[in-house]
Amino acid sequence: MLRQLEYRDPELADNTELVTEMLRTVAKRWRFRVQAGQLGQHPLEEALRFINSVEAAIDALGGGAGDVGTHEVRSNEERFHQLVDSVIDYAIFMLTPAGLVASWNAGAERIKGYRAEEILGKHFSIFYPEQDARAGKPARELEIAAREGRYVEEGWRVRRNGERFWAHVTITALRDPDGSINGFAKVTRDVTELRQANEALRQSEERMRLMVEAVRDYAIFRLDPDGRIASWNIGAERLKGYRADEVIGQHFSIFYPEEDRHRGHPEDELRRAKEDGRYEEEGWRLRKDGSRFWANVVITAVFDQERRHLGFTKVTRDFTEARRLREAQLAIQLRDEFLSIAGHELRTPLSALLLQVQGLVRIARIEDPKVKQRLEKAAASGMRLEKMIGQMLDVSRMTAGRLKLDPEPVPLDALIREVADRFAEIAADSKCPVTLRLDPVSGVWDRMRIEQVITNLLSNALKYGKGGPIEIEARSDGSHAVVRVIDHGIGIAAEDQKKIFERFERARDTREYGGFGLGLWIARKIVESSGGRIAVESEPGKGATFTLKLPLQPEETDAAQSS
């Protein structure tokens, strides 16, 4: 009955089953696009209506023709023909056995750029790039379709204006009841945007792969859902010691100490990462050679869009040195806390004892010179001990950021004279004549702390420049005061000149000169807290010059910190 109907396209009327299959393919692809969210500019409602229309046409064509009236069959066939003509996202057209275009729909006009009257009767090779047409590609495609029933590919095609586009092409052979070829059905879809998106995704994934593989300081690799290693980068090889061909496919628990494997810790990590999305810890891990290292580990669960679990990514860093640094910092913190506590606990009884000894020296009538000498030595030792305790407390305050400055107007030249007068007797005993070259200089500083700095520099000059002259200079240099303390003693080697300003660092053996190695560090901290700087110039055997530069007025930030 279908053959008796009048069709604008006789080929479609003679091959209803084939066209039904073609429409099933179209509907299936559109359903996939809806599920994947790849609708481009098409609204979802429009796509669903289109799918319903195609499926309605399939139902109409697939019904029992013998039970349907001629009018209804004709109506269904006409609706189907109208549907094919109205499809704009697919070029659906027929070819004669020789490859001449025999029908044309709206989608073909939109994709190819030809109107029906321009293209009907033309050979379909017109849609192919010139080199493909010359190479006989169109004819080979028809040969394959005739031999195998169908030909599918993706490749370049050409629009009427010469523009290329990437096409998904299906060519299906149409046969008479006796099996002879009476033409071909051709469905073409423009997938240029999809190809570009896929290519961009491929390039992005390739860049990511190359980047991950090139990372040397991190072990970055993938695990399958069971915890077996699925990828391996150069950082993993460097950190773990395994080559990719040695480790891929093995369970990642090989990196864990036996006690962790025995209690199921690797599996527990994966379980928690899957439940929470991410798991992070630090712990011991093993290299291929059996050596241990302290690792920071991050395991992230990977899911697809439908929340199907695909596996895990694992990033491992060697934190061995970081752990040692943390332990060292903790030890320093504990030491500083001890120094603070010990300093406070010792200072009160020591001060009382020192006052008593000094009182005895001043008021007691001691006939025996040896006893008097011993009392004087005890007093001197007590003063040195009190100074050391003061330094310990200063270290504690400075380390905790609690150094408090009380700025006030200070005549620097007068302060230096006072310090030099206190050291006059010691200087005479050390045979170190002290020469002062002091210009009148005044500024706003913490008097007690600046006095502490000058005292430290002069004390060091007397200690290390014993037997030689010492000069102290002070002058104004614009907005700063400059103080120089010069000795002519043993000097300081170049490699030691920077470290002497650090905590517990000295240029000379403590057994030879005594002390904690804190004085210059404390001096530097005081000067820097006052907005200034301190430096040294020296040559071994030629003495040393310490230069102190202080702003005459405190900066606003310094004043704020001091208040």
Number of domains as seen in the coordinates: 4
Total DSSP E strands: 15
Mean pLDDT: 79
- Oligomeric composition of the shown chains: single chain
- End-to-end separation: 105 Å
Structural class: alpha+beta
Number of helices: 21
* Percent helix range: 40-55%
CATH architecture of the largest domain: 2-Layer Sandwich
Low-confidence stretches: 1-14, 63-74, 557-563
- Major β-sheet strand ordering: 10-12-13-15-14
| Global geometry | elongated
Beta-strand content: 15-25%
Task: Write the CATH fold name of the largest domain.
Answer: Beta-Lactamase
Give the biggest beta sheet: 5 strands, mixed
Per CATH, the class of the largest domain reads: Alpha Beta
Radius of gyration: 46 Å
For the record, what is the CATH homologous superfamily label of the largest domain?
PAS domain
How would you describe this structure to a colleague?
The chain has 563 residues and is of the alpha+beta class. The chain has four domains: 2-189, Beta-Lactamase (2-Layer Sandwich); 215-318, Beta-Lactamase (2-Layer Sandwich); 324-399, Signal transduction histidine kinase, dimerisation/phosphotransfer (DHp) domain (Helix Hairpins, Orthogonal Bundle), CATH 1.10.287.130; 408-562, Histidine kinase-like ATPase, C-terminal domain (Heat Shock Protein 90, 2-Layer Sandwich), CATH 3.30.565.10. Helix content is 48%, strand content 20%. The protein has 21 helices and 15 strands. Helix 18 runs antiparallel to helix 20 (519-529). The termini are far apart.
